[in-house]
């Protein structure tokens, strides 16, 4: 019985492939193939059905299937294409076997279904696993990448450190900001820390709360915090919300904040150009004598 | 009137989704950047309240159009525990979660209209409106 069914399928593989292609081509109108050329679609279909047959023939999953799914993942084909394909295959093959058999009773029918499921299901599982595995991999990579970007600390010069924040701040990120800020202040021996929120789209009470807490913690370890990059619209919403940011200095731009930070550490920016001009003037006046 | 569009709030990141959709709608209606920031902040507060206190709920948007004025309505709904003392939560500095306690009174100041209905054990519905000037 086992081999009989398998032989029926393998002997008539051409007919089954033809049926499958016909049936599956009607799916072509669905949007997942909208940006795939007709030729490409047909070639892939042929390859797909060959892969299915080879895995039925070998009584198990072949490395062909791995290669095939890996290539489709890399090309960005949707998983829906493969699962649809397998569902159509299941329908076609059950149809075909039942038509080939003279006598169909319930036992035989359930036997056929069981056998076909045994062929089709492992392939579907394998494909879904490959796809979801690749997604999970991408998501975990991106999470790591995001985490690395989420709370950077730049020691711009002695005693002054900047933390530029870009994007939404959620609770997890707020925690990370606090940790990195305190670690960085100790590590770089910073006297002044500038927190730049130019890139934070919305400052609501939660974000403000976290910033206030971070600034307070920085104060506790003996450094000062300046909040910079407050855009006019953010300033208005902060006032409307009634948030008190009076405990630490705030500035509209990083540049102004940096100047304040220099002042706080007893330094200032001087133009070397003017000095040169002064010296030249002095030399000129000397020459004149 | 435009159809209501809603965002379900289940995870913390849904707050961002609600905020972005609200900001888009506000921009389409014609709000300037300052009002867009106000609206986005109000949505953020309301959505965060759902996430923090009710767990799940939804935030809906409605573009309002009357003869002489246009605006946006934001409706935050949940089936959470409800609010026992509405008067208390509308006071500045009241918080049960250790936050700033500026959320709801702040939203009221950010927007033009503010309606709150809450029943203990049944849930809360807050409707706020911002008119375009």
TrEMBL record, chain A:
By its UniProt entry, which Gene3D superfamilies does this protein fall under? Globins, STAS domain
KW Phosphoprotein (keyword) present: yes
Q: Name any one Pfam family assigned in the record.
A: STAS
Cross-referenced InterPro entries: Bact_StressResp_Reg (IPR051932), Globin/Proto (IPR012292), RsbRA_N (IPR014792), STAS_dom (IPR002645), STAS_dom_sf (IPR036513)
Q: Does the keyword Phosphoprotein apply?
A: yes
The family database entries (PROSITE patterns) matched by this protein are listed as: STAS (PS50801)
Entry GO MF terms? heme binding; oxygen binding
Q: Which residues form the STAS domain?
A: 150-261
What is the species listed in this Swiss-Prot or TrEMBL entry? Halobacillus salinus
Q: What is the lineage of its organism?
A: Bacteria, Bacillati, Bacillota, Bacilli, Bacillales
Q: Which PANTHER family match?
A: RSBT ANTAGONIST PROTEIN RSBS-RELATED, RSBT CO-ANTAGONIST PROTEIN RSBRC
Keyword line: Phosphoprotein
Q: Which CDD domains does this one have?
A: RsbR_N-like, STAS_RsbR_RsbS_like
Question: What is the official name of this protein in its record?
Answer: STAS domain-containing protein
Automatic annotation (TrEMBL), chain B:
Which residues belong to any copy of the Histidine kinase/HSP90-like ATPase domain? 34-133
Entries under Pfam families matching the protein: HATPase_c (PF02518)
Instruction: Give the range the annotation lists for the signal sequence.
Output: none
**Which domain of life does this protein belong to?**
Bacteria
The protein's name: Anti-sigma regulatory factor
Q: What's the source species for this entry? A: Halobacillus salinus
């Amino acid at each position: 019985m086992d081999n009989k069914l398998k032989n029926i399928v393998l002997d008539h593989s051409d007919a089954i492939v033809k049926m499958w292609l016909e049936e599956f081509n009607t799916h072509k109108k669905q949007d997942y193939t909208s940006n795939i050329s007709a030729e490409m679609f047909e070639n892939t279909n042929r390859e797909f059905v060959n892969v299915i047959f080879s895995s039925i023939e070998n009584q198990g999953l072949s490395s062909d299937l791995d290669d095939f799914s890996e290539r489709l993942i890399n090309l960005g084909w949707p998983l829906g294409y493969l699962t649809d394909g397998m569902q159509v295959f299941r329908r076609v093959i059950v149809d075909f076997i039942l038509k080939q058999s003279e006598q169909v009773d319930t036992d035989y029918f359930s036997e056929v279904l069981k056998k076909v499921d045994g062929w089709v299901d492992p392939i579907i599982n394998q494909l879904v696993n490959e796809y979801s595995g690749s997604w999970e991999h991408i998501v975990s990579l991106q999470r790591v990448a995001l985490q690395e970007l989420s709370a950077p600390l730049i020691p711009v010069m002695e005693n002054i450190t900047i933390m530029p924040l870009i994007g939404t701040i959620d609770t997890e990120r707020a925690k990370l900001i606090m940790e990195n800020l305190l670690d960085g202040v100790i590590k770089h021996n910073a006297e002044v820390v500038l927190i730049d929120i130019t890139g934070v789209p919305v400052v609501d009470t939660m974000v403000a709360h976290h910033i206030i807490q971070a600034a307070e913690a920085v104060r506790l370890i003996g450094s000062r915090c300046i909040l910079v990059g407050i855009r006019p619209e953010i300033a208005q919403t902060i006032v409307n919300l009634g948030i008190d940011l009076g405990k630490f200095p705030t500035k509209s731009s990083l540049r102004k904040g940096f100047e304040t930070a220099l002042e706080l550490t007893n330094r200032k920016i001087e133009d070397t150009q003017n000095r040169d001009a002064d010296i030249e003037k002095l030399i000129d006046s000397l020459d004149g004598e | 009137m435009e159809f209501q569009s809603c965002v379900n709030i289940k995870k913390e990141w849904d707050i961002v989704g609600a905020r972005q959709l609200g900001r888009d709608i506000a921009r389409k209606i014609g709000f300037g950047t300052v009002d867009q920031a106000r609206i986005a902040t109000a949505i953020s507060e309301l959505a965060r309240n759902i996430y923090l206190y009710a767990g799940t709920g939804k935030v809906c948007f409605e573009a309002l159009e009357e003869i002489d004025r246009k605006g946006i309505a934001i409706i935050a709904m949940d089936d959470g525990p409800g609010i026992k003392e509405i008067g208390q939560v509308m006071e500045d500095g009241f918080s049960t979660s250790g936050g700033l306690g500026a959320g709801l009174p702040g939203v009221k100041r950010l927007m033009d209209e503010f309606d709150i209905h809450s029943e203990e054990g049944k849930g809360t519905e807050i409707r706020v409106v911002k008119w375009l000037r």
